[in-house]
Amino acid sequence: MEDINYNGNKPILQLKSVSVAYTPDKKAVNEVSADVFPNTITAIMGPSGCGKSTLLRAINRMHDLYPSVKTTGEILLKGKNVLQMNPMEVRRMAGMVFQQPNPFPTMSIYDNVLAGYSLNGIRLNRQEKDRIVEQSLVSVALWDEVKDVMTKRGSFLSGGQQQRLCIARTLALKPELLLMDEPTSALDPISTNKIEELLLDLKSKYTILIVTHNMSQAARISDNSMFMYLGNLIEYGNTRHMFTKPRNKKTEEYLTGVFG
């Protein structure tokens, strides 16, 4: 792991022997350990069913919704073990953006941005709300496109705009970490390009983990990459190095299209 991009910083996220099991005898993620550094984009790659999304969802405690799913090991976010924290606090610190844009369909664009505050019972005055909404929408390059239609429903927007709205909703809570589960797979190429440009801009303020099936996307935007196979972390390193000189035979086979 000596070629990881870390810019001399301490890791913001540490995965220590993290396993996730859907049944007692079947681990979807098996003893994964890795350090993730601030202000980087880390791509998590691998074939379908390899544990990518399962690992991502473990980080912000999504598996708590299913009592039969067991997560073990340590997931340290800024030194705190998220498995021992209040799940709502974890989800504020580690915001999740999903594959399909999912603005709340009955809420206005304005209220969608503030949904995290409403769900957490946090009261804000109108001036605070206006400031958070504008800042969040500016940060995803959506403000100029929607500032005159703020009372319209989020579902009024195009798919790419909806996804940027969902990112703004996550950023409104000032997270430490952005977790993105194939956020462009349902979008057209132009919208995908806008989201990729947005992520490259956001990494100056945030740390981003992105699950992607798109190896070209990983090559374009990520600093570091994890390659997972059958629940195991096979290789983790600098993206450019991994794509040009993978250390593991299985990584090379995946990147050259032998399987996937």
Q: In angstroms, what separates the terminal alpha carbons?
A: 24 Å
Estimated share of beta-strand residues: 15-25%
Structural class: alpha/beta
Tally of strands: 10
Please tally the helical runs, counting DSSP H or I stretches of 4 or more residues: 11
Task: From the 3D structure, determine the CATH topology of the domain at 13-100 and 175-256.
Answer: Rossmann fold
As a percent range, the share of helical residues equals: 25-40%
Radius of gyration: 18 Å
Low-confidence stretches: none
Biggest sheet, in brief?
6 strands, mixed
Give the ordered list of helices and strands: EEEHEEHEHHHHHEHEHEEHH
Integer average pLDDT: 94
CATH class descriptor name of the domain at 13-100 and 175-256:
Alpha Beta
Give the CA-based shape. Answer: globular
Strand order of the largest sheet: 6-7-8-3-9-10
Structure report:
The protein is α/β, with parallel strands linked by helices. It has a domain at 13-100 and 175-256: P-loop containing nucleotide triphosphate hydrolases (Rossmann fold). Helix content is 35%, strand content 25%. The strands form two sheets. The chain has a six-stranded mixed beta sheet with strand order 6-7-8-3-9-10, sandwiched between helices. The longest helix has 14 residues, at 126-139.
